[in-house]
């Protein structure tokens, strides 16, 4: 009834090529952005910001990056954590070693460094594919873990290998309250989401998808696999690197290499697959699922326990958390192997006909 | 020289244990096309079950017969692994026939979480010990030949021998028995196998059972070596480069890969490590696998990947 | 149909999700002194995290029965973080919302992450026996309290002990000491001090990192077998310790020549090795296993005999249980001290607790009264010294239990102090902090 495109005519090419061709979609996205930027800062409290919203935003940016590579270009990676680490440590070094380095520039340069390494570690993708590639990218992960622990230069010779950043400042705006940090992350995420959306609609995105669907066929029609694959690695690593810099600078404030361990890489791949491969929206769904669900279970289970009059031990709760989390992953993959994003698009399809499906 | 031999031997024995875990990966991948990340969790559950069942049976029977307790433990753990295999097939794999590799990979990660949670809920999250009577003290050999002799760890030696026996047994099982042939047929082509009357579901249960048994042996060996606790799941990460190096579909590949990785990482850590600050063995293994992949994308023994358009 | 059910389930789940997440912050209200308890009862380090957490919680339980802290009741809540830094930060944020007034993070990684946050939130951070060593300097690290000892204290005493075994620190010249350490900020903390000491005494320091979680150490011990260091320092946690001892046994390295940090000297580290660990020594954070002390008997009588014990009864009095107990005691005494100044019977704020911790003075009389006679030595903190005590003993595993095997050592302030000052100043410069002056301290 409400979600209907009847009567929306496109009279120009520009109108036909815009991101959201259905007016309701456009309103919805603008509404969502307005809600996130204006209403959420008024509604949420500090805990929400610092423990849930900021991690959610940063990790969805990282998941977006991984999705460009895994979902759009079909190259499975288990090294995303390493690129987050490179982004974070590179940004840290730009901040520490160059006086008066602007914060945002340092983060973007962190992203650029991650992109450079992304190209390097993307080279095996020219030879190997699938699970072999996934394990090959793990080499990047372990190599980076080791390098940041062992090579003192990266951590400015901090004796413990842990680094921390001084206060965050952008053009005289000191970012210290949780709300400001949240808005800072939000700005990054919105900007990068639009970039990602446009990239995937552009020639380069189409090349990635052609490679994903059938690389030999893509090659035959004149797509250079080397350029397409390495550009996917570069762009994806850039996104992931910026997310890493945000994770270190804004969320943690001080960090050690363990913050970007192999678990993080798995987590990011999870987000992409649960959320939906090859979907921008899916990255956000996936991040929400993976970030919020464990925290929710951790808080909800004791409540549930006290309702039925059982006190569950802390260990019991976290075991139950593991079991339920795992079961939900299995459940969602069985019901919808294409991820939460597919559920979303099915919902939209149904909504078009609602309430008169026939 | 003696030290070089010692390092080699240490690497070979560690490598044999890696092969054991890698074998679990290969078995399941061959038969169902699933890259089973839950292998580490299976090792943990099997070892936990074994340790706890033998502990409980000792307490219940009041006996101090180590042998009986261990037998009960092994039988109990075997039963647990069977239930796991059955449940995985019944509730997960059966519903995911013909899905993409990435989806199946994620599902096994989900299974890993469930197994870790269930295992620790039922069996506890402390350190438990498995005592199958492994000797702990080293022996020194060839003292006449080299100064200081060559130190051999008896426990490692026995473990490696056990692993070798198991691997040989499995190879025979796969190549010579009817079930083994059925498993290979399923691996080659699900539909063709089904059309000649091989029951797909039963085959999967069998192969997960076999992987469960391999996990149990790995669990007993590692558990007796370092105690049964949560870190056993990380053994899977050490075995990944082995699988890749040897080829995902090759049983001999898992063995040779394990030996190469084992020797390579020990030698690199001991001879190269001191110059770069140490702690390099884990990434060195992966980089070794990576270099092999650049020349042979299907691993050393994997089936050649043919692209069809 | 299938889709409708799914959509319904998803809608219900999301409503439930958001309500639960929003509601947690609202329920915090304080008439009680709230003690957050960050624990890890699962994951790779559970076996060691469990007894600590049990001791901590057990100590808090009987306090209410005895009328609380001058009438103020205690409440506590555990939050499981599995030794993962980001989950630890989430726990911190969650429990902070419930009016937490002091945190004990039980992980060096989490301590690093929280050091900046605690300053902003004005919540003191007690890191008894872990955390960053330079935070002893309270005039820079206003909110950190590495009570009883930092890793630099441990490293310093370890060298003193080895020196004594060799017959004097001057005998260390030309000797070789290997440090087998957990490759993380925790394991790397002692390195600067050991390097300093190596320069002083002319011994050679060999660094052997072990990757998390530490189950693969064959190469490490092969190197030890080749290089035959005179002593091995073990800086491990969790499964890494027992693996190290087993590998030492397997390569024939004498356990008598091994010395662990206090996190590598508890029952879970050696129990499973049993007789193979005989002769292995470890530093203690003042206390060892104290099954005969009065406070343990009190705990058994007041908590376990009433069936309220958190963990198994056999564990009471074990090394890590005692450490949890003492950590809780330090927190409680900090609050008590704060009440002396800000009003007895009132709920203290984070800033007030901080003052209490900074002016902690547990003399022998107080310790005896609480049942800690023989367990630990007096602790007195000040603005410049947030550690309060730097005494350490060594205990040795005799195959079935830990027994003390040395006298008390005190870390050498002449070595420690300049390093602490330098590192703290570097931190202050990085963060643009001003060192607190004497007047600010007095406030």
Largest sheet entry of chain C: 8 strands, mixed
CATH topology of the largest domain in chain C: Rossmann fold
For the record, the count of structural domains of chain B works out to 1
Q: Architecture of the largest domain in chain C, CATH level 2?
A: 3-Layer(aba) Sandwich
Number of extended strands of chain B: 2
Helical residue percent of chain C?
A: 40-55%
Helix-strand sequence of chain C: HEHEHHEEHEHHEHEHEHEHHHEHEEEEHH
Helix content of chain B: over 70%
Q: What is the chain-wise order of helices and strands of chain B?
A: HHHHEEHHHHHHH
- With helices defined by DSSP (H or I, 4 residues minimum), what is the helix count of chain B? 11
Q: Which class best fits the helix and strand makeup of chain C? A: alpha/beta
CATH topology category name of chain B = ABC transporter involved in vitamin B12 uptake, BtuC
User: Over the alpha carbons, how many angstroms does the gyration radius of chain B reach?
Assistant: 20 Å
Note the gap between the termini of chain C: 69 Å
Order of strands across the main sheet of chain B: 1-2
Keywords (chain A): Cell membrane, Membrane, Transmembrane, Transmembrane helix
Subcellular location (chain A): Cell membrane
Transmembrane segments (chain A): 27-44, 50-69, 76-95, 101-123, 130-149, 181-199, 230-250, 270-293, 300-317, 323-344
Membrane topology (chain A): Multi-pass membrane protein
What is the topological layout?
The complex is a heterotrimer of chains A (358), B (309) and C (443).
Chain A (H helix, E strand, L loop, with lengths): L12 H4 L6 H21 L2 H27 L7 H18 L5 H20 L7 H21 L12 E2 L3 E3 L2 E3 L2 H24 L1 H11 L1 H6 L4 H28 L1 E2 L6 H14 L4 H28 L6 H22 L4 H14 L5
Helix pairs in contact in A: 2-7, 3-7, 3-10, 3-11, 3-12, 4-5, 4-6, 4-10, 5-10, 7-8, 8-10, 11-12, 12-13
Chain B lengths: L1 H31 L6 H23 L4 H27 L8 H23 L14 E4 L8 E4 H23 L1 H11 L1 H6 L4 H27 L8 H12 L4 H26 L4 H15 L14
Antiparallel strand pairs in B: 1-2
Helix pairs in contact in B: 1-5, 1-6, 1-8, 1-9, 1-10, 2-3, 2-4, 2-8, 3-8, 5-6, 5-8, 6-8, 9-10, 9-11, 10-11
Chain C lengths: L1 H25 L6 E7 L6 H20 L8 E7 L4 H12 L11 H14 L3 E2 L17 E2 L5 H16 L9 E7 L2 H4 L2 H11 L2 E7 L7 H10 L3 E5 L3 H12 L7 E3 L6 H4 L10 E4 L9 H11 L14 H24 L7 H9 L2 E2 L1 H7 L8 E2 L10 E7 L4 E3 L4 E2 L2 H19 L6 H5 L1
Parallel strand pairs in C: 1-2, 3-4, 5-6, 5-7, 7-8, 8-9
Antiparallel strand pairs in C: 9-12, 10-11, 12-13, 12-14
Helix pairs in contact in C: 2-12, 3-4, 5-7, 12-13
């Amino acid at each position: 009834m409400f979600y209907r495109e009847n009567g929306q005519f496109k009279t120009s090419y520009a109108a036909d090529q815009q991101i959201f061709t259905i007016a309701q979609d456009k309103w919805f996205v603008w509404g969502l952005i307005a809600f996130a930027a204006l209403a959420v800062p008024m509604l949420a409290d500090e805990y929400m910001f610092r423990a849930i919203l900021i991690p959610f935003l940063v990790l969805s940016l990282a998941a977006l990056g991984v999705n460009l590579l895994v979902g759009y270009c079909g190259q499975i990676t288990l090294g995303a954590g390493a690129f987050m680490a490179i982004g974070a440590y590179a940004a840290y070094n730009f901040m520490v070693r160059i006086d008066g380095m602007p914060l945002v520039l340092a983060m973007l340069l962190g992203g650029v460094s991650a992109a450079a390494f992304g190209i390097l570690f993307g080279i095996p993708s020219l030879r190997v594919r699938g699970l072999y590639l996934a394990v090959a990218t793990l080499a990047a992960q372990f190599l980076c873990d080791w390098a940041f622990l062992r090579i003192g230069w990266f951590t400015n010779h901090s004796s413990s290998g842990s680094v921390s950043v001084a206060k965050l400042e952008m053009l005289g705006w000191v970012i210290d309250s949780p709300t400001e940090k949240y808005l800072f992350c939000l700005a990054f995420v919105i900007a990068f989401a639009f970039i990602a959306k446009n990239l995937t609609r552009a020639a380069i995105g189409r090349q990635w998808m052609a490679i994903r669907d059938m690389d030999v066929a893509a090659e035959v029609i004149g797509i250079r696999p080397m350029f397409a694959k390495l550009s996917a690695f570069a762009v994806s690593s850039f996104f992931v690197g910026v997310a890493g810099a945000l994770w270190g600078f804004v969320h943690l404030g001080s960090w050690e290499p363990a913050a970007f361990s192999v678990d993080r890489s798995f987590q990011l791949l999870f987000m992409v697959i649960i959320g939906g491969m090859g979907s921008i929206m899916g990255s956000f769904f996936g991040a929400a699922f993976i970030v919020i669900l464990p925290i929710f279970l951790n808080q909800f289970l004791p409540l549930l326990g006290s309702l039925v009059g059982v006190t569950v031990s802390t260990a019991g709760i976290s075991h139950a958390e593991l079991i339920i989390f795992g079961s939900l992953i299995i459940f969602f993959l069985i019901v919808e192997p294409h991820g939460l994003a597919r559920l979303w698009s099915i919902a939209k399809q149904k909504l078009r006909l609602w309430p008169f499906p026939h | 020289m003696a030290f070089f031999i010692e390092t080699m031997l240490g690497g070979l024995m560690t490598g044999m244990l890696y092969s054991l875990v890698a074998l679990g990966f290969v078995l399941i991948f061959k038969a169902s096309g699933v890259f089973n990340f839950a292998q580490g969790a299976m090792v943990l559950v099997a070892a936990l079950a074994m340790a706890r069942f033998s502990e409980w049976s000792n307490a219940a029977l009041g006996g101090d017969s180590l042998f009986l307790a261990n037998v009960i433990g092994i039988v109990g753990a075997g039963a647990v692994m069977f239930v796991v295999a059955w449940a995985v097939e019944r509730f997960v794999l059966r519903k995911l026939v013909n899905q993409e590799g990435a989806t199946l990979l994620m599902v096994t990660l989900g299974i890993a979480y469930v197994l870790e949670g269930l295992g620790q809920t039922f069996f506890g999250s402390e350190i438990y010990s498995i005592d199958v009577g492994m000797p702990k003290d080293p022996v020194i050999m060839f003292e006449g030949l080299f100064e200081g002799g060559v130190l051999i760890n008896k426990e490692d030696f026995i473990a490696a021998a056990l692993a070798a026996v198991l691997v040989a047994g499995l190879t025979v099982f796969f190549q010579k028995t009817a079930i083994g042939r059925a498993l290979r047929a399923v691996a080659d082509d699900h539909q063709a196998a089904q059309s000649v009357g091989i029951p797909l579901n039963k085959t999967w249960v069998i192969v997960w059972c076999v992987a469960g048994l391999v996990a149990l042996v790995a669990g007993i060996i590692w558990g007796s070596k370092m105690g049964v606790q949560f870190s056993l799941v990380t053994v899977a990460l050490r075995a990944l480069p082995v699988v890749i190096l040897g080829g995902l579909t090759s049983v001999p590949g898992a063995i040779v890969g394990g030996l190469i990785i084992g020797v390579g990482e020990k030698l690199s850590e001991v001879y190269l490590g001191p110059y770069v600050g140490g702690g390099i063995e884990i990434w060195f293994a992966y980089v070794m696998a990576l270099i092999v992949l650049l020349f042979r994308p299907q691993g050393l023994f994997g089936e050649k990947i043919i692209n069809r358009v | 149909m299938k889709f409708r059910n799914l959509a319904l389930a998803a809608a219900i789940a999301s409503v439930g999700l958001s309500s639960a997440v929003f509601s947690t912050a609202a329920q915090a209200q304080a008439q009680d002194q709230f003690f957050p308890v960050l624990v890890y009862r699962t994951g790779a380090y559970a076996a060691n995290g469990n007894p600590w957490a049990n001791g901590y919680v057990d100590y808090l339980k009987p306090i209410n029965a005895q009328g609380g802290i001058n009438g103020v009741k205690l409440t506590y809540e555990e939050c499981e973080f599995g030794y993962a830094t980001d989950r630890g930060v989430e726990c911190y944020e969650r429990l902070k919302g419930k009016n937490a007034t002091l945190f004990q993070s039980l992980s060096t990684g989490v301590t690093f992450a929280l050091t900046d946050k605690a300053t902003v939130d004005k919540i003191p951070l007690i890191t008894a026996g872990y955390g960053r060593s330079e935070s002893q300097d309270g005039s820079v690290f206003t909110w950190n309290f590495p009570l009883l000892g930092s890793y630099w204290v441990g490293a310093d005493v370890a060298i003193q002990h080895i020196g004594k075994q060799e017959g004097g620190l001057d005998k260390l010249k030309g000797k070789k000491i290997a440090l087998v350490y957990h490759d993380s900020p925790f394991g790397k903390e002692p390195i600067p001090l050991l390097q300093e000491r190596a320069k002083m005494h002319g011994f050679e320091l060999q660094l052997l990192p072990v990757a998390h979680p530490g189950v693969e150490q064959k190469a490490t011990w092969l190197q030890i077998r080749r290089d035959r260091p005179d002593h091995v320092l073990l800086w491990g946690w969790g499964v890494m310790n027992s693996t190290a001892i087993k590998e030492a046994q397997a390569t024939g390295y004498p356990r008598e020549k091994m010395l662990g940090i206090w996190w590598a000297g508890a029952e879970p580290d050696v129990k499973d090795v049993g007789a193979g660990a005989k002769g292995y020594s470890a530093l203690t954070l003042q206390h060892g296993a104290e099954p005969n002390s009065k406070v343990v008997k009190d705990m058994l009588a007041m908590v376990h005999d009433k069936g309220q014990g958190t963990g198994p009864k056999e564990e009471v009095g074990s090394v890590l249980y005692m450490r949890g107990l003492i950590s809780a005691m330090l927190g409680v005494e900090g609050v008590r001290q704060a009440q002396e100044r800000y009003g007895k019977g009132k709920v203290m704020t984070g800033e007030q607790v901080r003052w209490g911790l900074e002016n902690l003075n547990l003399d022998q009389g107080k310790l005896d009264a609480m049942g800690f006679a023989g367990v630990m030595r007096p602790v007195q903190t000040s603005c410049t010294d947030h550690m309060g005590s730097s005494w350490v003993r060594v205990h040795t595993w005799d195959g079935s239990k830990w027994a003390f095997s040395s006298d008390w050592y005190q870390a050498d302030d002449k070595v420690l102090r300049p390093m602490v000052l330098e590192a703290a100043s570097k931190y202050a410069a990085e963060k643009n902090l001003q060192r607190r002056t004497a007047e600010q301290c007095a406030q």
